[in-house]
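Database export, one record per block. Field names are fixed; values are copied verbatim from the stored entry.
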Amino acid sequence: MDAFLENEYVKKILLALLILLVAAIVAYVVVRLLKHFLGHDKNNFPASSIFVNLTHAAIWVLAACVILDTCFGINVTGLIAALGVGGIALSLGLQDTIANLVGGLQVSITKLVQPGDKIRVGTDEGIVEDITWRHVTLRTADSNTVIIPNAAINKASFVRLG
């Protein structure tokens, strides 16, 4: 057993598993706290899933970077720099998706639309159920679900109804 634990590969795998465990615990606690904080009426932030999803993703990306650097000796700064250059090219191809992401952040932070609001965008009218990174979900009077891209809400005029 001692020889098994002294193996360099076993140590790296155990360390990676430990980092994953810590990341899972941190992600769970932070996401729960964020959901609790965003669920209160006293705060200035809307209770939408976009903040929770971005925080959750950031924690796991950070954990992956720590594992790559600590366990496998991969220089993460060079990888991040290469991803930055590739990100420019990728962003040109994902303009609509990025517009929806930025639109979702803008809609959430400025409280332009909040869950529970009754709005009309073009011919679609309903109660806002959720605001995600890509779209706003409306529930119509006849219980249909309408998905409106965030970029459309930022570009078009909408009416907040009573």
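Remark 1: The chain has a mean pLDDT of 84.
Remark 2: The two ends are 70 Å apart (CA to CA).
End of record.
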